[in-house]
Amino acid sequence: MxxxxxxxxxxxxxxxxxxxxxxxxxxxxxxxxFSLRLSPTTAIVTASGRHKGKLGPDDFxxxxxxxxxxxxxxxxxxxLLHTQLYARFANIGAVLHCHSVNSTVLSLETQGSELVxxxxxxxxxxxxxxxxxxxxxxxxxxxDQTISRMAAxxxxxxxxxxxCPAYLIRGHGVYCWSDDLDSCLDKLEAVEFLLQCELERRRxxxxxxxxxxQ
Length: 214
Ligand SMILES: CSC[C@@H](O)[C@@H](O)C(=O)COP(=O)(O)O
Ligand SMILES: [Zn+2]
Known about the structure:
Blueprint: H1 5-23, E1 33-39, E2 42-46, E3 60-64, H2 79-88, E4 94-98, H3 101-109, E5 114-118, E6 135-141, H4 147-160, E7 166-169, E8 173-178, H5 181-204, E9 212-213
Parallel strand pairs: 6-7
Antiparallel strand pairs: 1-2, 1-4, 2-3, 4-8, 5-6, 5-9, 7-8
Helix pairs in contact: 2-4, 3-5
């Protein structure tokens, strides 16, 4: 597949997003991966092992829906976690994966398989949520170096709960998706804000784990 104008425009947009996310401390030490949909069945994803705050045009690979590379290079080790979202949700155009301190610590400190968020005005940043009184659930999947196995668990969950706004991987980070890159960045910012609020509450009330389902 040739790297066309759409490929390079997408690469440029993702590189700028990576710089911003790195400045916020959400993609330390080459962690994280990003993608944008190129067509109904293809996407551009970050190359594996690159520093996500210093991405250049050669640090991106086009892949098909099964994660097979269509251009030269090695796509992210977690490509399948991106392509499965494009396959499941025909309307989405962007996926961001980050390793913030908040998502890493909170997913480790939460014993159950779900983090329940309620009472926060910022929940309204998620589509379909119109009140702070709503309960929004972020599932937490156990980390697994076999990505296909983790992707299967994520897919089963999302098939049952298609309104899920994002998910956490225990001790690892967060995956977030949306219509386009700008709205995905906004959503990620909302998720990170809410995770920080939950962590602060736990610091204020140690022993009282709020927002946690066993
Ligand atoms: C630097 S450790 C993080 C990796 O193991 C992985 O979780 C990650 O997010 C980046 O992997 P990558 O293959 O570069 O997309
Ligand atoms: Zn990761």
